[in-house]
């Protein structure tokens, strides 16, 4: 349990979660670009391999987002009430990260069903 009684601890945890969210978003975007970039030059098995690599990056980004939310919630559990400003909505970064994860899953599904 934290004993700093300083709201900056909460804000640091929130910044860390949002940094992981940006990293995961970058991985999801990279996976999309790998998949769509393979349309330009690859054919046959090369295209299938690019799809697999692109989907792997997208799913890795989704998993990273979910795990970062779990880590953030664990860090919140260690805070004292004095470290949380009154009326502060603790779940906004959680909602943001989970929304990106859901959109990443939707993108992966789209890439799977689109020829």
Give a description of the structure.
The chain has 115 residues and is mainly α. It is built from 3 helices and no strands. The protein has helices at residues 8-41, 45-77, 92-113. Helix 1 packs antiparallel against helix 2, helix 1 (8-41) packs parallel to helix 3 (92-113) and helix 2 packs antiparallel against helix 3. The longest helix is centred in the first third of the chain and has 34 residues, at 8-41. 22% of the residues are buried.
Poorly predicted spans: none
- Helix count, DSSP H or I runs of 4 or more residues: 3
The assigned structural class equals mainly alpha
Helix content: over 70%
Overall residue-averaged pLDDT value: 89
Cα radius of gyration in angstroms:
18 Å
Order of helices and strands: HHH
Reported for the largest beta sheet, the result is: none
């Amino acid at each position: 349990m934290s004993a700093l009684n300083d709201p900056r601890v909460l804000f640091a945890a929130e910044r860390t979660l949002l940094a992981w969210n940006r990293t995961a978003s970058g991985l999801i975007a990279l996976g999309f670009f790998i998949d769509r970039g393979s349309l330009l030059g690859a054919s046959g098995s090369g295209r299938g391999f690019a799809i697999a690599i692109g989907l792997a990056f997208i799913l890795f980004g989704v998993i990273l987002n979910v795990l970062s939310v779990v880590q953030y919630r664990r860090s919140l559990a260690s805070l004292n009430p004095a470290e949380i400003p009154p009326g502060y909505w603790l779940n906004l970064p959680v909602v943001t990260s989970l929304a990106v994860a859901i959109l990443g899953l939707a993108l992966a599904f789209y890439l799977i069903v689109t020829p």
